[in-house]
């Protein structure tokens, strides 16, 4: 599989890269890194094998993977392969293995469910209505996530309060509505701080971030954003919605 997206905005040359555009080491970042590491350590001690990092392979989750790996915390790392991801996203899996010696467990949708959905609604069903888009997300994301979290008592996410208004009250540790703890260790980090960390520790990241895609999901549902747009404006841009797929919806 090619490791270069066929999307026109992804093929366009970047004006610099995300590190050069965004990275800024703030006076509080050292303390935030220490606090994030403490949250991860405490969660690992409390939950043991019941803890998993649910990684989107976006830059925030890559930072968390780096924090876990550099401190050798025994935390499992998993991701969802929806069958619609950009090749640049999937290319991070062998890079994580090579860089950190950590294997990412991949959860995929049930093939027959995808086939039946596409046969009935079409491969472009997500564009037809919010209901069909959410149904697609349900098959490709929510069902595999359920398998990822089965038997787990806690999961780690890369959510940050700055990402959108809907995420402005993200807690470091909260109930996920299903009896598990949901831990977001870098919830208070800024975009500039995320990239400053990436720069300092040479964290691998998706090159689509260099193409003005701060939030990267499935290829048909992700576009670059314009200056001044919300971080998640490039997700389901044709909808007037809260830009969530259900993985992090409030109960």
From TrEMBL:
Its cofactor is [4Fe-4S] cluster. The active site is at 245 (nucleophile). It comes from the Bacteria. Its EC number is 1.8.4.10. Pathway: Sulfur metabolism; hydrogen sulfide biosynthesis; sulfite from sulfate. [4Fe-4S] cluster binds at residues 136-137, 218, 221. It catalyses: [thioredoxin]-disulfide + sulfite + AMP + 2 H(+) = adenosine 5'-phosphosulfate + [thioredoxin]-dithiol. GO terms for molecular function: phosphoadenylyl-sulfate reductase (thioredoxin) activity. Binds 1 [4Fe-4S] cluster per subunit. The keyword Iron-sulfur applies. It holds the Pfam family PAPS_reduct. Coiled coil: none annotated. Catalyzes the formation of sulfite from adenosine 5'-phosphosulfate (APS) using thioredoxin as an electron donor. This is Adenosine 5'-phosphosulfate reductase. It is found in: Cytoplasm. It comes from Pelomonas aquatica. It is an enzyme of class 1 (oxidoreductase).
């Amino acid at each position: 599989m090619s490791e270069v997206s066929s999307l026109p905005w992804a093929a366009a040359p970047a004006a610099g890269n995300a590190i050069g555009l965004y990275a800024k080491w703030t006076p509080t970042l050292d303390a935030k890194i220490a606090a994030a590491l403490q949250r991860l350590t405490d969660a690992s001690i409390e939950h043991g094998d019941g803890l998993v990092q649910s990684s989107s392979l976006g830059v925030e989750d890559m930072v968390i993977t780096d924090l876990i790996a550099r401190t050798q915390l025994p935390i499992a790392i998993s991701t969802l392969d929806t069958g619609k991801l950009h090749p640049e996203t999937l290319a991070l899996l062998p890079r994580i293995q090579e860089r950190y010696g950590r294997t990412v467990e991949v959860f995929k949708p049930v093939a027959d469910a995808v086939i039946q959905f596409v046969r009935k609604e079409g491969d472009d069903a997500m564009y037809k209505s919010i209901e069909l888009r959410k149904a697609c997300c349900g098959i490709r994301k929510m069902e595999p996530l359920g398998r990822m979290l089965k038997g787990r008592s806690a999961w780690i996410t890369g959510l940050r309060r700055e990402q959108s208004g809907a995420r402005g009250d993200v807690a470091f540790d909260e109930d996920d509505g299903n009896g598990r703890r949901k831990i977001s260790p870098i919830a208070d980090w800024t975009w500039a701080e995320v990239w400053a960390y990436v720069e300092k520790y040479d964290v691998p990241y998706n090159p689509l971030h260099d193409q003005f895609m701060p939030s990267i999901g499935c290829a048909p549902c992700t576009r670059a954003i314009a200056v001044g747009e919300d971080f998640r404006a490039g997700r389901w841009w044709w909808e007037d919605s809260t830009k969530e797929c259900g993985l992090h919806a409030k109960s």
